[in-house]
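Weekly puzzle thread! Below is a chain. First person to post its structure in C-alpha cell form gets bragging rights.
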Amino acid sequence: MSTPHRRRSLRGRVSECARLDELIAAVKPGACQVLVVRGEAGVGKTALLDHAASRSDGFHVLRVSGIESDMELAYAGLQQL
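Winning reply:
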C-alpha cells in the first residue's frame, strides 16, 4: 500500500532538493538507481527522503532504516530489501 506524499518545499534546502530533483529526472526508464542519505540525527534526512519520494511518480520507492548496532557495517540496512 503506498502512502501519498505531499509536495512542499524544504526551508534552507534549495540546493539539496534541486540535486535530488536532478537525480530523479536523470533516471531512465528501466534503469535502477540507489540513493543513500547519511548524516547525524536531526539534520533532516527524513525530510529530504520525503521530498525525493514525493517527486518519484511512476517509480517504485523502497525505504530501509539502519539500526545503531549495525552502524559499523556499510549498507547494513540493505539486507532488509
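Puzzle host: Confirmed. Bonus trivia for everyone else. The mean pLDDT is 82.
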